[in-house]
Amino acid sequence: MENEDAMRFFIENPAPPTLSDVENKVNKFIDLQPENRNVVLVTSGGTLVPMEKNMVRYIDNFSAGSRGAASAEYFCKAGYAVIFLYRNFSMMPFVRHFEGPWTNLFAKKDDESPLSWEIKDSLRNMLSNSLEDLELMKEQNQLLCLPYTMLTEYLWYLKTVAEGLKCLRSRALFYLAAAVSDFHIPAQDMSEHKIQSGAGKDKLELTMRPVPKFLRYLVDSWAPEALIISFKLETDENILIHKARAALHRYNHQLVIANLLTTRKRSVAFVIHDSVMWLHLSEDDLRNGVEIEYYIVSQCVKLHKEKNLT
Ligand code: 9Z3
């Protein structure tokens, strides 16, 4: 039944024109991988759901993309090839520390020469090293960055990447850190043009429908042999673990990483089968700038190795 919902979603929301280009890039990237290299799909950022077909307004999902970008970087460093499916203009691995207005990168020189702006001294080395790292990963075919904006793009690309990775069987890992909308307005219910305000209208009522549960599809059909790790985001700590467990039992994948919006950068819970393991950054970690994604990715890599030994 759920699979039928997913099929219907793809019929009602046709593929974006960019899909064949994405498919080619993914297949080429997978073909180029040496036999002993694992491949991870890291999803990142939030999906956007339009309110009108000629979109003026939309509903967005919260995510800065920091978890995905940091994790992609640590997976690269652990020797994985990374397909990074990210919200366009959200954070990118290796250059994520330079997000923000590009004008902040420059300082005015003390002299009077006409070309008097240059990269700030304090940033020059770091910027150069980060760009080198990014370039190296691309040259070694270890990083493929695929931007999306809309929920429909995200889901079409997810399906395409999963189909591409199927041939790698258990060498593939899915690390689903993107914040994906649970509700959307189906294409046939969506206003063609900008929703009008005006005389007599004192409220706007929208009907949104649940997005089919694609995790089920991924586990059962798209990537049955891969290691699949999803994230659960809540704002109420009283329901977090319960919801993460429910997701694990419902979809029957290997791991749910649960986090609360306010503490996500220093605490996460690994929910596996019936056990819950909390991971908290220590005072030392915080002082030394150690990121929680470093520990999360190490655990995921370990789990992937263990799974492939059994
Ligand atoms: C997460 O829970 C991520 O950890 C965050 C990372 C989005 C909180 P940032 O990008 O934040 O570093 O700012 N992602 C999953 C969110 C989500 O939508 N999960 C769904 C759910 O909770 C399941 S796919 O129901």
From TrEMBL:
Keyword set includes Aminoacyl-tRNA synthetase: no
Organism superkingdom: Eukaryota
Keyword Ligase: yes
Keyword vocabulary terms for this entry: Ligase
InterPro entries: CoaB-like_sf, DNA/pantothenate-metab_flavo_C
UniProt-recorded name of the protein: Phosphopantothenate-cysteine ligase Cab2
GO biological process: coenzyme A biosynthetic process
Protein family per UniProt: Belongs to the PPC synthetase family.
Species of provenance: Schizosaccharomyces osmophilus
Family matches, as Pfam families: DFP
MF GO annotations: ligase activity
Domain DNA/pantothenate metabolism flavoprotein C-terminal: 170-266
